[in-house]
Amino acid sequence: MSSLSLSKLPPKSSFYSHSSSSSSSSSSSPVFKSKFIWRFPPPKFDNLPSCISKQSSTIDIQPLNIDDELIKRQELAILIYDLGLHLNVSFTCIYTGVVYMHRFFMLHPFQQCLKESVAAACLFLACKVNEMPRPLNEFTRHLCQLINQVHNNSEDFLSTSSSITTVGNITPEVLSNYNQQIIDYENMLLSTLGFCLNVEQPYMIITRTSQTLSIPKEIAQKACEIATKSIFFTHFTMKYTTNLIACFALYLAIKSSQIIIPDNQDGSQWFHLLNEEFTEKLLQELADEYQLICMEKSSKKSQERFEQIRQQTVKTIFLSTSTKKNFIFHRKSIVNNSNQDQANCEQSNSTTSLHDNEQHHYPIATTSGSVRSTTSSSSSI
């Protein structure tokens, strides 16, 4: 097998980050935090990089259909999950990796990237951020195994023009090329994210709200399933705040169960506990958007694979947030990780607030997250 070409990797000079102007600081303060906006207005989703035709002396990008672009995201989200499953990492790492992938492709076209390697780099970085690093060689071997499995069992799940060559054996030279490819994409990812690395999850919000409202556990688990599927199958994490995603998931779970949550004594409704600006109309709009995507804008293979994921994860996610303990996925079983007493579902270094245009719920996230090592530790494995 010949070594893999890295021709799709853009030059390092083209790496760029998405960030707003740095927050103002006084002249006496040499250190300040930058503000990053990782929520985009609706028009952005009609003009995603993969859906825009670009022509130059070096690049000729044929645009994707918007629905096809979303399906590619769904496939990579499931690939990240499967890779995390093989590597026995926490669902927090998987969730973080999926969000990184969504952020990356808000600014880069699929046509210009080796998408499976991007997915691996997203999870590779997410594991470091969540202090569960895995050897780079291990990442590469499991990624190749997954690509082989996908091509053998389901030709139409990932595109036939996979960026990873299907092989039976991996030579040291080829392994080194793959490793370098993931490292290069990790550097590109860091540049794109602007080192805004913390990611909030909706599960703790769902659990605490359910406990406050005395909602049955089965409905809370259903809400966790909806929240997870919304991250895997939609652009919600790039459109809406974590608070709103959690609220919408609870709203849809409650509505489908046909139970009634009484209004508060002051006349406010239950979802006002999360944000006084939320309305039933807004939550129903999200529910309609979510259901439309799940019914009409996702592949059958992705739906079938997510059903397996749902059976493996949702109950564990709910139990882990209830007990505030992290959890580890194994290929045949799921066990609690008793060595970690803090839930990674809460990112203490990240704070969010609503944008001035409140009705769209675009928060500005200010973070000080960092990674202790990005490439040096990886290359020495």
UniProtKB/TrEMBL annotation:
The keyword Mitochondrion does not apply. Residues 78-191 form the Cyclin-like domain. One of its GO terms (molecular function) is cyclin-dependent protein serine/threonine kinase regulator activity. Residues 1-30, 362-381 are annotated as: Disordered. Keywords: Cyclin. One of its GO terms (biological process) is regulation of transcription by RNA polymerase II. It holds the Pfam family Cyclin_N. Residues 366-381 have a biased composition (Low complexity). The keyword rRNA-binding does not apply. PANTHER family: CYCLIN. Belongs to the cyclin family. This is Cyclin-like domain-containing protein. It comes from Rotaria sordida.
